[in-house]
Design a protein that fits this description.
It is a single chain. The chain is mainly β. Helices cover 0% and strands 74% of the residues. It is flat and about 180 Å long. It has a domain of 156 residues. A hairpin with a 6-residue loop joins β1 and β2. The protein has a two-stranded antiparallel sheet.
C-alpha cells in the first residue's frame, strides 16, 4: 500500500550574485575642430547668343478642283395614248303607241388617240468645279536672341568641421557575476510501499461431469437390386460391294 512521508534532505545550490568591480577600457573620444579648405565651385551663369532658325509659317492657298456629280434632269416626252370617251350616236327608235319612227341619241364608249406629255427623270454625270482652301507651310528664317545657361569655375575658401577620434582610458564600474555555493535543507515527500493483507470473495468456475442424452443422425448402407440398360460395343459383318482389278496371264500366238 503506498504511503507518503516527509524527509529532510540537504543539497548544494549554486547562486550567482552581481558585484560592481572597477574596470579600465580604452574608448575613442570624437573631437571636432574647424579647418580652412579651398575647393573649386561651379557657379551657374547665363549668356546671350544671337541665333538663326528656320520656322514653318502656315498659310492657305485657293485651289480649283473638279469632281463628277450625278444630276437628275427632267425630260419632257410626248406620246400617243388610247383614251376611252363617251360619244353620242343617233339610234332610230319606233314609238309603240303611235307607231312613228324617230331618232334618239345614245351614249356609247369610243376609243380615241390622245397626245400626252410626260416628264421622265434622266440621270446625268456632270463635271462640277469648286474652289478649296489648301493649308500649306512655307519656310521662313528668323533671328532670335537666346539665353544660354553656362557655368564658371570659382575657388572658394571655407571653414569645414573635421571630426577626429582620440584614444582615452576610462575607469567604469562593471557588474560582474560571482558564483556562490550554498547548502539548502528542504523537506521532500517520499513515497513508500508497505504490505497489507486484504480478504475478498472471488467467484471461481468449476467443472463437474454430467451425462446427457441427445439424438444424432446415423447413415446406414444396404444393398438394392436395380436393372440398368447399357449400350455395349460389338462387331457386326456387313457386305459392301467393291471392285478389284486383277492381272491375268495370257499366251501370245
Amino acid at each position: 500500500m503506498p504511503t507518503t512521508r516527509l524527509e529532510t534532505r540537504e543539497r548544494e545550490v549554486r547562486r550567482v550574485e552581481w558585484q560592481d568591480r572597477p574596470r579600465e577600457r580604452t574608448v575613442l573620444v570624437p573631437e571636432t575642430h574647424l579647418v580652412e579648405k579651398q575647393r573649386a565651385v561651379l557657379v551657374p551663369a547665363v549668356r546671350e547668343e544671337v541665333r538663326e532658325r528656320t520656322v514653318l509659317v502656315p498659310e492657305t492657298r485657293l485651289e480649283e478642283r473638279a469632281r463628277p456629280v450625278t444630276v437628275v434632269r427632267n425630260v419632257s416626252e410626248t406620246h400617243t395614248e388610247q383614251v376611252v370617251t363617251a360619244a353620242k350616236v343617233p339610234v332610230p327608235v319606233c314609238d309603240p303607241c303611235t307607231g312613228l319612227a324617230g331618232v334618239v341619241a345614245r351614249v356609247v364608249p369610243a376609243v380615241t388617240d390622245v397626245c400626252v406629255t410626260t416628264v421622265r427623270p434622266v440621270v446625268e454625270q456632270v463635271l462640277q468645279k469648286y474652289t478649296v482652301a489648301v493649308p500649306t507651310v512655307r519656310p521662313e528664317t528668323r533671328t532670335e536672341t537666346v539665353r544660354v545657361p553656362t557655368v564658371r569655375e570659382e575657388v572658394r575658401t571655407e571653414r569645414v568641421p573635421v571630426t577626429e577620434l582620440r584614444r582615452a582610458t576610462k575607469v567604469e564600474l562593471v557588474s560582474v557575476p560571482v558564483e556562490r555555493r550554498e547548502v539548502v535543507r528542504e523537506q521532500v515527500p517520499v513515497r513508500e510501499l508497505r504490505p497489507k493483507v486484504e480478504t475478498y470473495t472471488v467467484r471461481v468456475c468449476e467443472e463437474r461431469p454430467e451425462v446427457r442424452v441427445r439424438r444424432v443422425p446415423v447413415t446406414v448402407t444396404r444393398e438394392v437390386t436395380e436393372e440398368v440398360v447399357e449400350r455395349v460395343p460389338c462387331r457386326v459383318a456387313v457386305r459392301v460391294p467393291y471392285q478389284v482389278t486383277e492381272r491375268v496371264a495370257c499366251r501370245c500366238e
